[in-house]
Every structure is written in C-alpha cells, then in structure tokens.
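user: can you give me the structure for this one chain? tokens are fine.
assistant: on it. calling the predictor now.
[tool input]
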Amino acid sequence: MGKIVDDRGDTKTEDSRKVRPFGIRDKIGYMFGDFGNDFSFIFASSYLMIFYTKVLGLSGYVVGLLFMGARIVDAFTDVTMGRIVDNMKPAKDGRFRPWIRWMCIPVAVASTIMYLYFVQDWVYWAKLAYVIITYLFWSSFCYTAINIPYGSMASVISPDVEGRASLSTFRSVGASLAGLVIGILVPLIIYETDAEGSQIVKPVSFTVTAAIFGVFAIICYGLCYMLCQERVFFEKKEGARDNVWGMLKGLGKNRPLLALVCAALMLLLASLLGQTMNNYLFLDYFKNAKVMSVVNVVNVAGTLLLAPFVSKIVTKFGKKEAGALGMLAAGALYLLLFFLRLKSIPPFVVILFLAMVGSGLFNLVIWAFITDIIDYQEVVTGKREDGSVYAVYSFARKVGQALAGGVGGFVLTAIGYVSEAPSQTDAVADRIYTVATLVPGACYLLVFLIIQFAYPLSKKEVEKNTEVLRERRKG
C-alpha cells in the first residue's frame, strides 16, 4: 500500500500513522529555504559583476561571456538533477528534503570561494581559470543540487491550492528578507570614499562577507529541513521511467510551462539587470553608493507590505490575474523613470518603490505558478514530474540570470565603461541611467503580455485541475 493524501492534506502511511497537518511551521521553514538560497544567489546576482570588474579587473565583456557560457553547462546539469530527484527512491525523510541536508555545506563553501580577494594579484590567465572553475562549481553543480529539490518540494508539502500559494508567498518573503540583509549591509561594508571623494570597493570585505553569508545560509537550510515535511507521495510505476529526450518532448508540449519559461527569462533579465545596474547607477550617476542601502530597504519594503494580503488577493482574483497586473504597473513606472531623467535621488526612489510593489506582487505568487504547472502536467499526462518541471523552470531562470549578467557586461563595455577608472564621464553615467530604467521597463511589460495572453492557467482552470487530482488520489 502506498501513501494517501486525504482531503485535509493529512497523509496516512502503511501503518496508519499520520504526518502532522500542514501549517505555519512548514511556511516558516520554506521561507528559510529561500533565505538560505539567496545568501548566495542575490549576493552573486547583485555584486559578483562588481567583484569581477572592480576587484579582479576583468572586462565586462569577458564576464558576460562567462555568465552566458555557464548556462550551456546548466542545460545538462539542471535537467539531470531534475530527473535524479524524480526517479530516486525516497529516503525516510522524503524525496526532496534529503538534498537540503546533503548539499547545504557544499553550496555555502562554493559560494564563499568565488570571492577570494587575493586572486587580484594573480596573472590574468590564472584569474580567468579561477573565475571559470569557481563560478561553475557554485552555479552549475552545488546550487543546482540544492535549489531544484528545494523548489520541487513545494508541490509535496501541501496538496491544497491555497497552501501552495502561501508557500510561494513565504518563499518570496524569505528572498525579500535576504535581499534586505544583503541590500543594507553589503554597500556599507564593501564601499568606501577615498581622499578625492571617489567611491571605491574594499576587496577583503568581499571575502569576509561571502564567508559570513555562507554560515547564515547553512543555518537557514537547517531550519528549512527541520520545519518542513513532505505530504504528497506518489509511487513510480515499473517501466515508467522515461529517457531525458522523452521527458523534454513531453514538457515541450506543456503550454503553461513554456509561457512561464519565456516570462522568467524577461523577469530575471529585468530584475537582476536592474539590481546590477543600480550599483553602477548610484556609484557613477548619482555619485552616492552608500545610499544603495536605503534604496534596497525601499525595494524590499514593497514586497513585505504586500505579503500579508497576497492570500486574499489570490483567492479573490487568481495568481495569473494578480501577477499580470503587477507586471503592468512595474513596467509602466520604470518607463516613467526613463522619460523623466531624474537627477535627484528622493523622487527616483519613490517611483522605484512603487515599481517594486508591482513586481513584488508577481514575485510573491510566481512560485505557486510552478506547482500549478506540475499539477497540469500530471492531469494531462498522468505522470508526476515535480523535479523535471522545476528543473526546466530553474534553467530558464539561470538563463535569465546569465542574460542579465551577460547583457550587463556587454552593455558596460558598449557604453564606454572603464573598469579601472575611479569615476566615469557624464556621458557614460547618462547611458547607465538609460540602461537601468529602459531595459527593466520594457522587459516587465513583455512579462505582462506573456502572462496575460499566453499563460492559460487562470483561477478557474487551476481549481478544476486540483479537483481532478483530488478525485484521482481518492480512487
């Protein structure tokens, strides 16, 4: 006899023992999981380009090639990891949770060794080898091996639509809190003003900060492992294991997944390029790098203010409907910043805050999109492929991350940015402002169009799929 999920989300095992009901403990635990993830992911997304260009002295073009090339490796490692977690025999603590226990220390170590300050004294070819090896080790192997099981786990923590939506909200809150910590502390730690008034970075601070964040990440992963519990169990039928090509072919027909993949590319390009370019924007355009701490607080505040109301918004309007509206607002406000060409920091930050409220609404529900797509795949094909679906989406996010880093590096080179210069010309600073506002605005509007017109899982459709699966499991 297998495991059966009852109507309340409780699970009866073979010896009739019950897993505790889904509740706030699971939500907080899942929040800590993304908190742990983002101590390396957000730090890298926001500051790895700064470290590579300002500390190691690499050109933006070279860094862009690295970020883009790493995604070719991810095309194999992400999908392989998804198949591994889908087809492995569950351990006593579940199918997905063990990976958090196994990989929490390796991913923290891998993240830390990407920021070794003394590499700046190495010869160029040695720097390049160091950057390639350590970045791939973190991004394509260690981070993949913990993030895909963690992301897939949401679909088995709760079988309920509202429960999964709340997990998405708490996950986004975890990311926001990590972003808040990183956003406040890092600019104050890594930047200083020299005798001539120019903003410079402190190389040693990168290494120390990365090591401290690694310790915090391990603690957060440990809390995620202890507080979360898997409740939806499914048995793999003998002979039902598809090859990778068969799996990809099946997922290639999944319209909601394809739409979300396209949206993810644009979303990550907009948000991560915005984060990266903001560092250069306040460093070289506004000439006040330390105010980034305030800006980062304002950015996260919008998401945290929305979080308590997301469940009600989703219940009333649906995830697709709410997310599309948030993207429309964010895109329009970024374009407003582009056309205004503001020179003063306060009005810029106010409009940026409103834009972040819009994007924050979408980010609070986006992870619940994945669980809806996993259910859709099971309804259509009869196969449960949590890890594989999440792996494809994770790969799309990494491509978006690479595009943000790659485009950021290419653009910095194209607009005449000089890494070794203590300050940039006014013309270069103006071009930084253009990239930091126009590109996110256009990308957010594209996300709105994709979700509104190409993503088919409306509130009504999600509820129908949930009912179909509930009836199947009862049977």
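assistant: here you go. The mean pLDDT is 85. The beta strands are 4-5, 11-12, 191-193, 199-201.
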